[in-house]
């Protein structure tokens, strides 16, 4: 099958360096407190990811890390922005609750209109945006972290239709571990992470989606960042890289072994700022 040329679009991102990253507690199935994080390697790998995004022409803002908040490196979870409006996170687990305050400070200082969620939600961890699909569609996950009531709240804040998707496998506790936007209207996803009803909905709306298997998802191959042409994945996601290449995209692999110890990879470390 031949595909039209995939065109990149310059993006703006927010990242937070893993200066205080450790695995001190376990709030998802991937976190193992018995294995020490190589702090120097984590920073080196994070810097490579940031450099890769910059070399592709994207703008990367940096959020200052805060001691005592080891998961701040997962910057995607702090908020979700669409059309210059920001829906602020309210974390489920108390260990991460102060991260939301740090993100609020960034958006306020940058002049972004911000609404702090009253419902539990974890930002881009459970929200994805497709600006050219159905007039601009938000895909929203629930089942483990984000409360489904947050989906209606996000729709009111952002003024975009929100489609709820039920996550059913605890290994894929956030939407961004099971589904990714490849460009402004196409997605990749692992069907087994979703309820049968959500699988049917995704199949109807996105018949041309790139389908991942469980091995791809366990390699965090769906926890990716794409600019519409370049798809940045971790080095373990070789098979997923092949699948996006077959769909006309250009995979770019970056090693992020240390961040995976906390249950995240490329996307978890990168929040998109949609002005």
Describe this structure in words.
The model has no long low-confidence stretch (mean pLDDT 97). The protein is globular. The protein has one domain (12-272): 5-stranded Propeller (L-arginine/glycine Amidinotransferase, Chain A), CATH 3.75.10. It is built from 7 helices and 15 strands. The strands form 5 sheets. A 3-stranded mixed β-sheet has the order 2-1-15, with helices on one face. Strand 7, helix 3 and strand 8 form a beta-alpha-beta unit. The chain has helices at 39-55, 97-109, 149-158, 196-205, 214-218, 238-246, 257-260; strands at residues 12-15, 59-62, 79-82, 85-88, 114-116, 127-130, 137-142, 162-166, 179-181, 187-189, 210-211, 225-226, 230-234, 250-254, 271-272. With 275 residues, the protein is of the alpha/beta class.
Q: Roughly how much helix do the residues carry, as a percent range?
A: 10-25%
Kindly report the average pLDDT value.
Answer: 97
> What is the helix/strand order?
EHEEEHEEEHEEEHEHEEHEHE
The overall strand count is 15
Q: What's the Cα radius of gyration?
A: 17 Å
CATH superfamily: L-arginine/glycine Amidinotransferase, Chain A
Strand adjacency order, main sheet = 2-1-15
